[in-house]
Amino acid sequence: MRRIISDIINSDEELHSERTATNGLEAINMLESGQRFDCIILDINMPKMNGIEFLKTMNRKGIKQNVIIVSTIAKEGAKETIEALELGAFDFVTKPDSLAEAKGSEFSNRLISMIYAACNVSITYIVQKAAEEVKNMVGGRKQTPVIKTGGTKNRKASASVPGVKYRKKLVALACSTGGPRALQYVIPFLPKNLDAAVLLVQHMPEGFTASLSKRLNELSRINVKEAADGDILQNGTVYIAKGGSQMRLKRAAAGTYTLSVTVEAARNGLKPCADIMYESLMDMDFDEVICVVMTGMGADGTQGIVQLNKTNKIYVIGQDEETCTVYGMPKAIAESGLVDEVLPLKQIADAITRHVGVR
């Protein structure tokens, strides 16, 4: 596998594989000798020193390096992968199940794209197409707002019907690369009695969102769960879209809403896809939808928010560039001209709470 990964890296004109190590201890010795790299590709299951121990040792010694997890155990032990991300790993790619898959273009492209992002090499080719589509949808505007206090957006006011109790506001959050760690500065700081439900799309494969949900629930006052098909939407609960599935909100009886979680094709290579989640909120009876876009590659979420803005009153919060692991998704929504506030990571939870209130 080391040879295959090295060949993939060396096949790209911008990258080269500098050194290899057979275990974490050997890799730590390299770093302690003063060697530094733009990126480290790390397995979790290794002899002498595993990937978790490697990251802990690196942190303890104050060694700063970009680390991408590539491991079979990532599928079998999602808990270890979430822990690796908490310890500072940039992101992860699941190791292919077969040699043919390992040598295939899908794994190669995923790995190279991740390395480009981690090394801060220009990733224009990754987001250019999505960004162009977004610009076309919003009339070609390209601007980066800092803070807006007014409302010049084309929004449809919602109406309430006497005798029917509506959940007045909804929070819909999207993130990708760097998200699992960033979410620990947002979800645990939301109050237990938040007067809204939170729908959350974090790009992850099947099996990982359950571990992410469990970990965030352990850290939080607010209830956090992996979304399940048929869940009845409740205020004060965060619903994390299931990896490998698409999540939508649907109307139910008596002014209630339920979640639809279905196994279906990816959109733009993503399942879950934030655009699908945002589009499902169109024409829903919320007084306002608070859309939050955080760190991540690409532009997922922007097209969905553009569509949602045509039918609903929305308030958009984007994470600022300085605190993003990758300034892709927040940049795309900022350039759409729909952002109301651009905030550093640690101010997002307070902004959400202030905007939706508590019960």
TrEMBL record:
The modification 4-aspartylphosphate is found at residue 43. It is an enzyme of class 3 (hydrolase). Residues 1-110 form the Response regulatory domain. It catalyses: [protein]-L-glutamate 5-O-methyl ester + H2O = L-glutamyl-[protein] + methanol + H(+). Keywords: Chemotaxis, Cytoplasm, Hydrolase, Phosphoprotein. SUPFAM superfamilies: CheY-like, Methylesterase CheB, C-terminal domain. One of its GO terms (molecular function) is phosphorelay response regulator activity. Residues 162-359 form the CheB-type methylesterase domain. One of its GO terms (biological process) is chemotaxis. The active site is at 176, 203, 300. The keyword Cell wall biogenesis/degradation does not apply. Its EC number is 3.1.1.61. GO terms for cellular component: cytoplasm. May play the central regulatory role in sporulation. It may be an element of the effector pathway responsible for the activation of sporulation genes in response to nutritional stress. Spo0A may act in concert with spo0H (a sigma factor) to control the expression of some genes that are critical to the sporulation process. This is Stage 0 sporulation protein A homolog.
